[in-house]
Amino acid sequence: MIHLLKLDSVDLDSKDGTYGRSALSWAAGNGFDTTVKVLTKGVWNRRKGVWLPSIEKAQIDSVDRYGRTPLVYAVWNGHVAAVKVLLKAKARIDLEDEIGGTALSYAVCNGHNDVLKLLFKKGTKVDSEEDISVELLFSAASRGHEAVVKLLLETGKVNPDMKDQVGRTPLSWAAEKGRGAVVKLLLETGKVNPDMKDQVGRTPLSWAAEKGHEAVGKLLIETGKVNLDMEDGAGRRPLLWAAEKGHEAVAKLLFRAGKVDPNSGAAGGWRPLTNAIEQENLALVQLLLAEGAKMDYRYKIVCEPNYI
After folding, report:
1. b/e burial code for range 177-210 (CB count within 10 A of at least 16 → b)
2. Residue 53: beta bridge partners?
3. Are 220 and 250 in contact (CB under 8 A)?
4. What is the pLDDT of residues 89-140, one digit of tens each?
């Protein structure tokens, strides 16, 4: 490692093309504390044929594509020695990644007491362990951070079927955002209700149908525990949401999965066929007609301005 760093052309802060992580990040995450120490203390440069100490050091708080620093990865994996080196090098413990996680919050969630003691020496105040875990779970599920969701579930400190202030569960958020890997992970716990309604009566399938997430819809349907024709608070069913947004693939999925009413409507008389015609979506219109959708008089009055 030291011989490599003596090369004049080496960029200490170069990052990989996949995760955007620096050499310091990888070393810290794998517990290579000696390498971390070399990178944080500075390397040697050649001056007039002689190797001399240089003030050039790796960026301590370099962030990757998720906004995570070397300290976060060292904490995450419980590498106490690497954490000590990074803290001595003035690594910040309060920097948030894209889901709001910090080095301290991951230490709390992981239960690495030795690491926690080191971080608490910095005099940082922290919310309760439960509050941190809950906030991270919802954020990670929504943004598709499978590794964080898995970490939190493995601690056994969070309820994967908990609700937020609007009655939505982590599964609901993951379904809406199309986070298939997270949806699969949550369903595999066997502790979530795939048909849970939120405060406006929307289910995870309803959200997936609206957003056109066919793969997520399939995962939910395969549980055998979802109502394909569940109405929300406005009388809308998954098929109506799919038709309104023009998601033909989701509509097909619903029809293949079981008995779905092609004429289910909502307030104002709008039906799946109404929406498909309004969007001039011929493929969707043909699908709905083939499944028994009916053209009614009300549609002509509403949608044909020259009818009278």
Report:
1. bbbbbbbebbbeeeebebbbbbeeebbbbbbbbb
2. 44
3. no
4. 999 988 999 998 888 888 877 767 788 778 776 555 555 667 777 888 998 9
Ordered by where they begin, the domains of the chain are: 1-125 (1.25.40.20), 127-193+210-217 (1.25.40.20), 228-308 (1.25.40.20)
| The pair of three-digit structure tokens given for residue 32, joined into one six-digit string | 């290579």
Q: What is the dihedral of CA 166, 168, 172, 177, to 10 degrees?
A: 40
Residues in the chain: 308
* Contact yes or no for 4/10 (Cβ under 8 A): yes
- The confidence score (pLDDT) of residue 307 equals 36
- Exposed/middle/buried for residue 170 (C-beta within 10 Å: 0-12, 13-18, 19+): buried
Cα 63 to chain centroid, rounded: 18
Residues 6+ apart with CB under 8 A from 60: 24, 40, 69, 70, 71, 86, 89, 90, 91, 92
Short-list 269, 297, 273, CA closest to 285: 273
d(CA 35, CA 170): 38
pLDDT in tens, 220-268: 999 999 999 999 998 899 999 999 999 999 999 999 998 899 998 776 6
Contact status, residue 166 vs residue 173, Cβ threshold 8 Å = no
pTM of the model: 0.74
Contact 197, 172 (CB under 8 A): no
CA distance 169 to 159: 10
Q: What pLDDT, on a 0 to 100 scale, did the predictor assign at position 288? A: 94
Please work out, in degrees rounded to the nearest 5, the angle formed at the alpha carbon of residue 246 by the alpha carbons of 245 and 249: 120
Residue the block writes with tokens 């709905």: 288
Q: Bridge partners of 45?
A: 52
